[in-house]
Design goal:
Length: about 100
């Protein structure tokens, strides 16, 4: 049979094991709390980045509209320049004809 000393030793060992388990659980809880705090910081940072990206998107949208307006204006100028090119070609043809008439006189 077990002697009282062995029983006391077993109880002390179990008590020490339980205390060690509580210490480990305390360490784990501390680690989890630090992680929780870090996640909160990262969440706040992501929220700030989301706001900043939203602002940048709005600015880029404005630039896109402005560039679209420039594209329309450039297209209008291209049409005008094409018309001028046709007119200049016509004038060139007329001048060539005038030069031919003057040379034949």
């Amino acid at each position: 049979m077990n002697s009282p000393a062995k029983g006391d030793r077993a109880v002390r060992r179990l008590r020490n094991d339980v205390d060690d388990i509580y210490d480990i659980l305390g360490d784990i809880q501390g680690t989890l709390q630090r992680h929780d705090g870090r996640f909160d910081q990262q969440s706040a940072t992501l929220d700030q980045h989301t706001v900043t990206l939203g602002e940048h998107t709005a600015i880029l949208d404005e630039h896109t509209v402005t560039l679209g307006g420039h594209t329309v204006k450039l297209d209008e100028h291209t049409v005008i320049l094409d018309q001028h090119t046709v007119t200049l070609d016509e004038h060139g043809t007329k001048l060539d004809h005038i030069i031919e008439l003057l040379e034949t006189r």
